[in-house]
Design brief:
Elements (H helix, E strand, L loop, with lengths): L9 H15 L36 H4 L14 H10 L2 E7 L2 E2 L5 E3 L2 E6 L3 H15 L7 E7 L8 E6 L9 H35 L12
Antiparallel strand pairs: 1-4, 2-3, 4-6, 5-6
Helix pairs in contact: 1-5, 3-5, 4-5
């Protein structure tokens, strides 16, 4: 089977430009707290808006980012990835698991984070980032991003970041959780960098002159 390459679509390009610019216009974690409902006083001057302590390792994140902090705070090993997704501000984490082994010591449930995304471009950028980490051997296991749920009554489709267990001969929880940290630490700059590259490429394509009718040469 040969897959035909589609011609550029000005309408699609316009939507892509809008969504990519929206991502790139978001404030960084040092400009505005990623946990928007956080009112923890900062250590430097007691402000509830200062970002000096905002980081993946903030001890308040497991409770602040959970909708049920008393009974279901975010599990420690997956907190970095939930937090990192929040720094993008254009996707919304909605479920997470740090992964668990069964009674036999083998992997029972892999770590992963589910999130809502209104634009298809944001999951695509994250997927490209994961593929790049794998290609560079920056992570020990291959990870992928999948569409897991779409409900017409829910405004945004749901995606998951998880290890590609079908490509891992013997998945080990400790190794997967170590990958979580690596993925999280580079996610915000990695996704933003891909967004900038994609935006420039699409704008250049949109600005390129189109060819007029070809002249027919006589004999």
């Amino acid at each position: 089977m040969k897959i035909e390459k589609l011609a550029p679509d000005p309408g699609f390009d316009a939507e892509a430009i809008k969504d990519l610019e929206r991502l790139l216009d978001q404030p960084s974690e040092k400009q505005l707290r990623p946990c928007l409902n956080c009112d923890v006083p900062c250590p430097c001057r007691g402000s509830t808006s200062c970002t000096c302590a905002c980081a993946i390792g903030c001890p308040h994140v497991p409770r602040i980012l959970s909708t049920d902090p008393e009974d279901h705070p975010i599990e420690g090993a997956i907190v970095p990835l939930v937090y990192a997704l929040g720094t993008l501000r254009v996707v919304r984490p909605c479920w997470s698991c740090e992964g668990h082994n069964g009674a036999d010591g083998k992997l029972y449930r892999p770590p992963g984070v589910w999130f809502y995304a209104r634009s298809v471009f944001y999951p695509w950028l994250i997927s490209e980032y994961l593929a790049n980490l794998d290609n560079r051997k920056a992570i020990e296991n291959p990870w992928h991003l999948c569409l897991v749920f779409f409900d017409p009554d829910n405004s945004d489709p749901t995606f998951v970041i998880e290890p590609d267990l079908g490509s891992i001969e013997k998945p080990e929880l400790w190794s997967l959780q170590r990958d979580v940290r690596v993925i999280a630490e580079g996610l915000e700059p990695g996704v933003r960098g891909r967004a900038r590259d994609s935006l420039a490429r699409i704008k250049n394509r949109s600005a390129a002159p189109t060819c007029g009718p070809r002249a027919v040469l006589g004999r």
